[in-house]
Specification:
Layout (H helix, E strand, L loop, with lengths): L1 E5 L4 H12 L3 E6 L6 H11 L4 E4 L5 H10 L4 E4 L6 H6 L1 H22 L3 E7 L22 H19 L4 E7 L1 E3 L18 H9 L6 E4 L11 E2 L1 E3 H14 L5 E7 L5 E2 H12 L5 E4 L8 E2 L4 H7 L7 H14 L7
The structure holds UDP-4-deoxy-4-formamido-beta-L-arabinopyranose.
The site of UDP-4-deoxy-4-formamido-beta-L-arabinopyranose has 19 residues, from helix 7 and strand 8.
């Protein structure tokens, strides 16, 4: 299939592009480069040995998106483009609603006109908010607790309503848990601008000597060692989940959602210890106050994706640490370096 990947120069987008190409699909990448680098696309070409069509522009610009559809025969879309920093979304809600919802609406309207009705949407486990229990299944209550999560929840609802009104639409929303790690080549990986919000890139930068120590946000949660527990999923397994979703889009009309997670929980201290083992570097860390908005524990029941998409995570947190370290140590300043 010929797949348009929005956010194609980003962390998830580049890894998904590699996985799609290696599965025999063709890709067209679209990215505004707000928080990604064109160098990442060149690295995708190095890894796959294939030239990749790449368009720089904004998904919310109808003329730009229509031009991309006019230039390429697109069979399906993987929509990853969007703002994704939880903390920033609470400070700038209007920017998040405008950017993330406008982009989706524009993309769907252009797809409708172009006669393209297949989409895999990048959703997030954040749509579950603070779950009543774990592991989390897709039928559990959806209740976003920040504007970023709300944009994902609204997007899923928009796609559900669209598919209900127009049966030709086939949509799969993938609810990512915590994507971590890097491609095994070390050529692409997570490259957050500024100070990383997320745990893994922060640990990697401490290991590389770019940051002094990891601040552990609380050790008084109701978890085995008191620190927050999450479902860390290797980004290559996540990318393969998109390939599985793309290849199952034709199976059933309508809109479906699947958890993409390992099904296991890892604490902050366990993640730090795993990274120390994988990198051979000491990771200084200090326990400080909880981060507002954080929840204690969150991990997936990924059995629906296994049943319907034939997908299951194959890589461990240790693999993610080893691959993240290979990326970080080979690219101490990320793509810009
Ligand atoms: C993980 C754990 C922190 C940083 C977020 C978004 C989610 C998704 C993934 C987009 C928590 C602790 C973190 C640090 C720490 N993004 N931590 N020190 O918050 O689970 O999920 O990113 O879809 O939507 O909500 O990920 O990596 O920020 O935190 O102790 O410097 O690490 O308290 O327990 P989170 P995270």
């Amino acid at each position: 299939m010929n797949v348009l990947l929005t956010g194609g120069a980003g962390y998830i987008g580049t890894h998904t592009a590699v996985a799609l190409i290696e599965a025999g699909h063709d890709v067209v990448l679209l990215d505004a480069l707000h928080n990604s680098h064109a160098e990442a696309v060149r690295r995708v070409e190095r890894i796959t040995g294939r030239d990749v069509a790449f368009h720089v522009g904004d998904c919310a610009d109808p003329a730009f998106v229509a031009k991309v559809f006019a230039e390429h025969r697109i069979d399906a879309v993987v929509h990853c483009a969007g703002l994704k920093a939880v903390g920033e979304s609470t400070e700038q809600p209007l920017r998040y609603y405008r950017n993330n919802i406008d982009a989706l609406l524009t993309l769907c309207e252009v797809m409708q006109v172009a006669g393209v009705h297949r989409m895999v949407f990048s959703s997030s486990a954040t749509v579950y908010g603070d779950p009543d229990r774990v592991p989390i299944t897709e039928d559990m209550p959806l209740r976003a607790v920040n504007p970023y999560g709300a944009t994902k929840l609204f997007a899923e609802q928009i796609l559900t309503d669209l598919a209900a009104a127009s049966p030709e639409w086939h949509v799969i929303s993938l609810r990512y848990f915590n994507p971590v790690g890097a491609h095994v080549s070390g050529l692409i990986g997570e490259d957050p601008g500024g100070v990383p919000n997320n745990l893994f890139p922060y640990i990697a930068q401490v290991a590389a000597g770019r940051r002094e120590k990891v601040l552990v946000y609380g050790d008084d949660y109701d978890t085995p060692d008191g620190t927050g527990v999450r479902d860390y999923l290797h980004v290559t397994d996540l990318a393969l989940g998109h390939v599985a979703a793309i290849e199952h889009l034709g199976d059933a009309p309508g809109a479906r959602a699947y958890n993409l997670g390992s099904g296991a929980g890892t604490s902050v201290l366990e993640a730090i210890a795993a990274f120390e083992r994988a990198s051979g570097r000491e990771i200084p860390h200090e326990v400080v106050a909880r981060r507002p908005g954080d929840i204690a524990i969150c991990y997936a029941d990924p059995s629906a994706a296994r049943r319907d998409l034939g997908w299951k995570a194959a890589r461990t947190v240790w693999d993610a640490c080893a691959d993240a370290w290979r990326w970080q140590s080979a690219n101490p300043r990320g793509f810009a370096g």
